[in-house]
Design goal:
The strands form four sheets. Strands 1, 4, 5, 6, 7 and 8 form a six-stranded mixed sheet that branches. The protein has 549 residues and is of the alpha+beta class. It is flat, with a radius of gyration of 30 Å.
Length: 549
């Protein structure tokens, strides 16, 4: 046989070689449904810039970026190189068009609203198909590293001095009343006036540090650079918080401690997950260094998304803030949260399970700490490790407010009294007197509260484990809260698409799409069209495989 001929391969249809249950079809069908329900988002954009016409369409680029995140390909450069590998799934989503790195970057920056709307659609889709029940929600927060060097920072007084210095000497230069602006330009860019401005340079370096010097040097370059520097200073001024330093790269980051107690310039990412299938219901990035003020914000967001007010929210002790808990209690939402004593008791149990960290001698010393006293909610009493019950006696007024007092007469005869109490005759436990906090505390100790809280680790912590470990997410790669929120929205879309793919067959999704197209020919449609299919699915092994009719 000769080698002068070659077999001709013909690809009849892009995607024909892929398995029909492949997740790329789930992405494509979900996006088609989204497009049918929200067609106003896909009107042709007016041409706002000179140059050649864009070759890509919105309904091609967004599924491509979403599928890239599913395959753990997130950067614009990696997405461009991924297409060059001739992956059929990419060809299927892009209709054999080639996007460049610049094209992908422009799309993610200019179409943030579309990415947010697709994220909202997936949440609504989960609610309408029963994947999100909205009865039991787990919320938690984690610290994500900001895209900036923590050493590139300036303090408020340095920022103020730099701005005053630039405006003063630039004004003198414009009015021809001083030549220091010109001399500084020659000093930095042409190595002139070195002896004359040597002392001034040392003074500036001490006053505004090396990063302030860098901004000053940029402002001297030309008029456009001066405008950029003044804009950067304005952004830093808007983010001043007390006497804390501000990053010169991303001023919207804040000083926070991560899980390993390492301080840095970070963001606080909040996430709420439904207990049924583990879909994310709401998420956002905040600049608060802890979770104490976030419970009311999460409740308000959930009420808008779920379109109901009665549900159960489960959070850890990090959300314990008296004023915020009072505000949540005034809503119909039921809150499950442990108090400080209960949180410390759970942490101690966890340390005992971990044999490497468990120190038996130290445990004996900690035996009679308050968190080792078991609270009895029905009797409103404490049971000590020696078996003595401390009942509530009366209230006492202190500088910190009214306190509840618990003690027992039997303590006088206890052999552990010297180890247990500093007092000679009994051990006394005090709690804050607050009727609302007492109700929240009792709610946690109910059978339902204990059952609900026991699932918090697998849902709330599990969501972050998937994000940080399985998807190798190590921090924010964009600057500013707005772009950081958009970046986390793309990871949320990835999470929810995977959950939908796991629980709904692609044939069922295709059927839903075809039914929507038929209905659209008759009348205008919206998300309420899903109401006709609720409770009308055939479910096997927790997966929707078809309609009943």
């Amino acid at each position: 046989m000769g080698f002068d001929s070659q077999t001709c391969f013909i690809l009849k249809e892009v995607g024909s070689n892929l398995d029909k249950n492949h997740i790329v079809f789930t992405v494509k069908i979900l996006f088609e449904i989204f497009k049918e329900i929200r067609p106003e988002l896909f009107k042709k954009d007016k041409k706002t810039r000179t140059g050649p016409k864009r070759t890509y369409k919105t309904d091609e680029m967004l599924p491509f970026i979403s599928f890239g995140h599913i395959m753990e390909i997130t950067s614009c450069r990696k997405l461009e190189n991924w297409w060059k590998n001739n992956d059929e799934s990419c060809q299927f989503l892009l209709n054999c068009k080639k996007p460049s790195k610049t094209t992908i970057n422009d799309f993610t920056n200019n179409k943030m609203y579309l990415i947010d709307e697709f994220d909202k659609f997936l949440m609504e889709f989960g609610i309408k198909t029963g994947l999100i029940e909205g009865n039991l929600i787990y919320a938690d927060g984690t610290v994500l590293k900001g895209y900036c060097n923590p050493h590139n920072k300036m303090y408020p007084d340095q920022i103020k001095y730099l701005k005053k210095f630039i405006l003063k000497h630039y004004k003198e230069f414009k009015n021809n009343t001083g030549d220091l602006w010109i001399k500084l330009h020659e000093f930095f860019y042409n190595d002139k006036y070195q002896d004359e401005l040597k002392d001034l340079y040392k003074k500036l370096k001490k006053t505004i540090n090396s990063f302030g010097i860098h901004l000053l040097k940029l402002s001297l370059k030309d008029h456009k650079s001066l405008k950029r520097v003044l804009k950067r200073i304005k952004e830093m001024e808007a983010n001043i918080s007390g006497k804390n330093s501000i990053s010169t790269v991303d001023p919207e980051t804040r000083h926070m401690d991560d899980k390993k107690r390492i301080s840095g310039l970070n963001y606080n990412y909040q996430q709420a997950i439904d207990d049924k299938c583990g879909m994310i219901v709401t998420h956002y990035i905040t600049q608060h260094p802890n979770d104490q003020l976030e419970s009311i914000e999460i409740v308000n967001r959930l009420q808008r998304i779920l379109n109901k007010k009665e549900f159960t929210l489960v959070v850890d002790h990090g959300y314990w803030h008296i004023k915020t808990l009072h505000r949540v209690h005034r809503t119909p939402t039921k809150l499950i949260i442990p108090n400080r004593t209960e949180a410390m008791r759970r942490n101690a149990k966890q340390r005992e399970k971990n044999e490497i960290r468990f120190d038996e001698r130290n445990a004996k010393k900690q035996r009679f700490k308050k968190y080792n006293f078991k609270y009895l909610p029905k009797e409103d009493a404490y049971l000590c490790p020696a078996g003595i019950k401390l009942t509530r006696k009366d209230n006492s007024i202190t500088k910190k407010g009214i306190k509840k007092r618990y003690n027992a007469k039997e303590c006088e005869k206890c052999r552990y009294l010297a180890k247990c109490s500093k007092k000679e005759y009994r051990r006394e436990i005090t709690d804050t007197f607050d009727p609302i906090l007492d109700k929240i505390k009792k709610e946690y100790y109910t059978e339902y509260g204990q059952t609900a809280y026991s699932g918090r680790g697998s849902h709330a912590e599990g969501g972050f484990a998937i994000l940080l470990e399985s998807r190798n997410f190590r921090g924010i790669k964009t600057k500013g809260v707005k772009k950081a929120n958009n970046e986390m929205t793309r990871t949320t879309i990835t999470h929810n698409i995977k959950k939908i793919h796991k629980h709904i067959n692609n044939k069922t999704l295709n059927k839903i799409l075809n039914e929507i197209k038929k209905e659209k020919q008759k009348q205008e449609i919206n998300m309420n069209i899903f109401d006709k299919w609720i409770n009308n699915y055939i479910i096997e092994n927790d997966k929707i495989i078809d309609f009943k009719n």
